[in-house]
């Protein structure tokens, strides 16, 4: 009987995920991720987190979902496509990562997840749970791998055979027994395209990213001056970087999203290098009003533009 109930609840969840526009929904049993503990510890010991000291906090919470949701039984991993209809990165302008073209994904997806959880409570009954979108110590890529959504590529991003990697991950952690999916297989094979293409050598070995050298870290997370050793290596990226995704063979399967909130501000499409260089704080506030680019603030974006314009 318990299995039949779990099957029924699982069907409701997967159907609802589909209705809400999520491309994939995988479910894994909530447990302590023992096999990840050593990897995480070694990565931190090597200093690959750079100045992102928050990654050193909540070590146990990262590995144990029951510390985030007492009595947690299931981790639901969801995929939401953000691949744009048009790639705005070209040699005539400065580049921002595709995920930041439209409205900040934290708000867009969190709203969907809250509705999702309310819906489940209406259909299933009282459920204790929490929703997560890249905002808490959840090892989202590891959970997505456990639930068969995809595998972690050599660039440390989650890859999916039918849609590549231009998508957001989100989780629901619930105290609900469900039917669990099996783990995904790794399909990277002998390919090293992402490692070879990284201009700052931020992928020193397969499946390990030195965060302190990653262009995304340097342009967003790092609040100090960008170290001079990276001059001439940033390839005009001023907020995030898509190089290791753009070269990944699996991204030939990417298809444009259908989320109106991810459409870029019309001014963004027309921006030239001189537009970026001459941008005022007023324009910054208008174009990036609800965008993830606000994270770097106007001064941070100016720093990144200036650093890119000094080629040596």
Secondary-structure blueprint of this entry?
Layout: H1 2-19, E1 24-29, H2 34-45, H3 59-63, E2 74-81, E3 95-96, H4 105-124, E4 129-132, H5 140-146, E5 151-152, E6 158-159, E7 167-174, H6 193-197, H7 215-221, E8 237-239, H8 243-246, H9 266-269, H10 273-277, H11 281-287, H12 297-309
Parallel strand pairs: 3-8
Antiparallel strand pairs: 1-2, 2-7, 4-7, 5-6
Helix pairs in contact: 1-4
Explain what this protein looks like in three dimensions.
It is a single chain. With 312 residues, this protein is an alpha+beta fold. It folds into two domains: 2-87 and 98-174, no CATH class; 193-252 and 264-309, no CATH class. Helices cover 34% and strands 11% of the residues. A four-stranded antiparallel beta sheet has the order 1-2-7-4, sandwiched between helices. Strands 3-8 form a two-stranded parallel ribbon. Helix 1 runs antiparallel to helix 4 (105-124). The longest helix has 20 residues, at 105-124. The protein starts with a helix and ends with a helix.
Short description:
This protein is an alpha+beta fold and 312 residues long.
Strand content: 5-15%
Structural class, judged by helices and strands? Answer: alpha+beta
Describe the main β-sheet briefly.
Answer: 4 strands, antiparallel
Strand order of the largest sheet: 1-2-7-4
In total, how many beta strands? 8
